[in-house]
Design brief:
Length: 477
């Protein structure tokens, strides 16, 4: 292609040839962005490891890096029906850019910047981000959080309406800090034998709910940042936030989400009576220490039951959130009865936040790894339908789900990989032509190809939780 005679930092709109170079450049940017759009579309159809998607990603990487040889960055603004580069709207000759702009705007992204040295792997991560449910991205701290988790350094995403979003981020930080302080004051009051200021607790939960309903990105991204020293207080706030977001995806109305938020923020109030050296112990607890830890649900429920203004549901959740669906948890009850719906939600979210919190004695666990462990190794501890809804936010599929692989084969999920909790183990049912497989070959989807990518991935799910899936799961064991 012809050279554009541009130097880093110069604006093509001021080119001396009456904008000819600018038009040429915008055409090349449109070509590169179109290749990215095509890669995203094919990732949706086939999965990021499929040869078709890989070929598009390779092409897009080459086109972008050719442009980045002459300038350090390419900043492209996203509008409702077009992209704008250097104040010029990009043409959409191939008809691929509008769908890409829609996916970016659906995730509140107003600008995408490509930085010199962009890698094919990073474009693959971007493609996966743009086919992930925005609510699942919330659990990873938004689209930028997902890029950070996957160590993407040559692609930057900026939120839509930057001035307003910056204000929202500052407001979200203030709300989050107020919430942590409110929990701290509530626990200190209980420790001293005083009543909780339930009006203050309700007010901060209402404020968090209002922020989440307006724009969930700010508070959820803060909930993904964990402080070990402030864990006891932040954990209660995080459970409140994620539980309300999850409740929203389940169809709860605002009143119900408020009740759930109150239960979430107060669920661990009983831990003020557990010695701090046990709560913060940098290692596994002894049997005696576990006996002390096991007292906090009952003690917390007693405190809440005698505190004016605390909803009955919060007392129930404080008591039940460690009993577990299979009743292997604590406290033990003489006459087991069905657990409360909100207790099931808080059990899932409580475990999720605990697993994704950094501990001195173990490496941090990524959100999808945490949910993968819950889904495949600890599934009996959680209400199965709710766990599967929670896992669906991160594109993880339950045991028994019939899935399509990027190879075109059909398989049934039979468990999780020991090598990577976020990846399933499946057994083949049929090939891409529909011919039944023999022997139900076992495939660990954590296996890598020679290039470091996954050898096979799930691209679609059919009839989860159906009778067909149940029978297939039994046959494949």
């Amino acid at each position: 292609m012809a050279q554009d005679n541009l130097t880093a930092g110069n604006s093509p709109a001021l080119d001396g040839e009456g904008g000819t170079a600018a038009v040429r450049l915008s055409s090349r940017v449109e070509e590169a962005l179109g290749a990215v759009a095509t890669a995203v579309r094919n990732t949706t159809f086939y999965g990021v490891q499929h040869a078709v998607a890989v070929g598009c990603l390779k092409e897009a990487t080459g086109l972008l890096n050719a442009l980045l040889e002459r300038r350090p960055t390419l900043e492209i603004n996203v509008q409702i029906d077009q992209f704008v580069f250097d104040n010029l709207p990009l043409p959409d000759y191939m008809g691929t850019l509008v769908p890409l702009a829609e996916e970016l705007l659906a995730r509140e992204i107003g600008r995408i910047t490509f930085i010199a040295g962009v890698e094919q792997r990073e474009l693959a991560v971007l493609a996966e981000v743009l086919i992930t449910d925005p609510r699942a991205l919330d659990l990873q701290g938004g689209a930028n959080g997902a890029l950070t988790i996957n160590q993407v350094t040559h692609i930057a995403l900026e939120p839509r309406r930057p001035d307003r979003v910056d204000d929202n981020q500052r407001e979200a930080l203030a709300i989050y800090e107020d919430a942590v302080d409110t929990v701290r004051r509530a626990m200190n009051a209980v420790e001293r034998g005083h009543n909780i200021d339930t009006q203050a607790v309700r007010a901060i939960v209402e404020e968090m709910l209002g922020s989440l309903l307006y724009d969930s990105t700010g508070l959820v991204s803060l909930a993904a940042i964990k402080s070990y020293d402030e864990y006891l207080y932040e954990h209660s706030v995080n459970v409140c936030i994620v539980a309300m977001v999850f409740g929203c995806t389940l169809g709860l109305n605002e009143k119900q989400m408020m009740e759930l938020g109150m239960a979430g923020i107060l669920h661990d109030i009983g831990k003020v009576f557990v010695p701090l050296d046990i709560v913060r112990k940098p290692g596994p607890l002894t049997e005696e220490e576990w006996m002390v830890m096991h007292t906090h649900p009952l003690v917390g429920a007693k405190v809440l039951a005698t505190t004016p203004g605390v909803p009955d549901l919060a007392t129930v959740v404080a008591f039940e959130h460690h009993i577990k669906h299979d009743r292997t948890g604590y406290p033990k009850v003489a006459r087991p009865r069905p657990l409360n719906f909100y207790s099931h939600i808080c059990t899932i979210v409580d475990c999720y936040d605990s697993l994704t919190t950094v501990r001195p004695y173990r490496a941090p666990v990524r959100p999808e790894q945490a949910v993968g462990w819950m889904l495949y190794s600890g599934q009996s501890q959680f209400e199965p339908r709710l766990l599967q809804r929670f896992a669906a936010l991160l594109r993880l599929y339950p045991v028994g789900a019939i899935v399509k692989l990027d190879s075109g084969d059909w398989a049934v999920v039979s468990g999780g990989s020991e090598k990577d909790p976020s990846r399933a183990v499946v057994r083949l049912l049929a090939d891409s032509a529909g011919a039944m497989a023999r022997g139900f070959k076992r495939i660990d989807l954590s296996a890598r190809d020679p290039h470091g990518g996954y050898s096979r991935s799930i691209v679609d799910c059919l009839q989860p939780l159906s009778r067909v899936a149940e029978i297939a799961s039994v046959l494949a064991r």
